[in-house]
Design goal:
Length: 387
């Protein structure tokens, strides 16, 4: 029998059912899912509104390119118009976050006619060639070099932004570095970054693939900083579980793009439009960003009050329901022990446990996660002490 190529280590679980913030394995064990497909299931597994839209669209038309008009695309654009700043009145849908980054980088090159990019240390933007070029981890990049011309600056260093000059096509930044360790940007850094890119004529691309669509307590994380980028990307939660991403840009950029500059067989397909429409309705109907803000404050407070006593816990940080517990050691064993306690989390950076829960997480769930994390940290500390 043919085998699946595996680029991911196995978690040793066979998941057979999922609903809201929970999944079940083939032995009917229930787990609290704080992994959520790297944050994709932020609106909950099997969200009923998203599924209703998908089923309805599947019964009408599944496959069309953007060359054809469809009612669902029109409805999606109306729904999205309520969720993006007024200036961003152009969008193109694709299938993954990396693809969204690819389009953003291509657009920056065409608009500025420059070749160099700036990204940041500990960044992650994807694994296709362009997205990989602006991803920091050398383990991902080096086997595939040469890549694009990219200079990596220190994240949150206002001083290093002086290195941005008139040769730079664009600077790409995550408002909170996810894969890099759940590192939030500072307001000073983001404001200075916006100022210097304007001054030097470089585009500012904000990668909201993980942070966007309500997770941090606002619809878009850049709104916390009182700035607007030139282009921003979205993905993961925006489809409510369906594989879709988006690139948003204003008229002054979009009007300089021409037929053939980009394309995607599945880009902006009717099912993706249906998923985004349903997800947008969920976001507004249930005031998801505000729920994420309040629940995130509760969760972070609970973790800080109960984990700070451990010498191995360096910091608990995050924004909304994007939370990291940074340790003084590799968290893999602690994450495995948490899974034994029926809580699924994931690693970020080298030393951080990352929580990306669905927005409907409850206080009881948070206590469950806290107790699992405590056991994971205690047993890891004990093992390290005994070695």
């Amino acid at each position: 029998m043919i085998k699946l190529i595996s680029f991911f280590g196995s978690r040793g679980l066979k998941i057979v059912k999922a609903e809201n913030q929970y999944v079940w394995d083939d032995k009917d064990n229930k787990y609290l899912d704080l992994h959520a497909g790297h944050g994709v299931a932020f609106l909950g597994h099997n969200n009923k509104i998203v599924i209703e839209y998908l089923i309805k669209q599947m019964n009408e038309v599944m496959t069309l390119t953007p060359a054809f008009e469809t009612p669902i695309r029109e409805e999606m654009l109306r729904e999205l118009s309520d969720l993006v700043p007024t200036n961003f009145n152009n969008v193109f849908l694709q299938n993954s976050g990396a693809e969204a980054v690819e389009l953003a980088l291509k657009v920056a090159r065409k608009i500025t006619k420059r070749k160099k990019f700036i990204a940041f240390k500990n960044s992650f933007h994807g694994r296709t060639f362009g997205a990989l070029s602006v991803t920091w981890n050398k383990k991902y990049r080096e086997p595939f070099e040469p890549l694009l011309d990219v200079e990596f600056l220190t994240f949150n260093s206002v001083e290093e932004l002086k290195k941005i000059n008139e040769d730079v096509a664009a600077v790409i930044v995550e408002p909170i570095q996810g894969e890099g360790g759940v590192n939030p940007a500072t307001p000073e850094f983001m404001k200075a970054l916006r100022e210097v890119t304007k001054e030097k004529g470089a585009l500012l691309i904000v990668d909201e693939v993980q942070t966007g669509f309500g997770r941090t307590g606002k619809v878009w994380a850049f709104q916390h900083f009182g700035i607007e980028p030139d282009i921003f990307t979205a993905g993961k939660a925006i489809g409510g579980g369906f594989p879709v991403s988006a690139v948003f840009m204003p008229d002054w950029i979009a009007q300089n793009l021409e037929e053939g500059d980009h394309g995607s067989t599945y880009g902006s397909n009717p099912l993706a439009a249906a998923a985004v429409t349903g997800a947008s309705k969920v976001l507004k109907t249930f005031n998801v960003p505000e729920q994420a803000r309040l629940k995130g404050e509760t969760f972070i407070k609970l973790l800080r009050e109960n984990l700070s006593e451990f010498r191995s816990v360096r910091e608990i940080r995050g924004m909304g329901l994007m939370i990291g517990v940074d340790l003084r050691f590799n968290p893999s064993l602690a994450i495995n022990i948490m899974q034994q306690e029926r809580v699924i989390a994931l690693k970020a950076g080298i030393t951080t446990i990352r929580f990306l829960p669905p927005y409907m997480i409850t206080t009881e769930d948070m206590e469950w996660a806290l107790n699992a994390a405590r056991r994971g940290i205690i047993e890891t500390e004990r093992k390290k002490t005994s070695v």
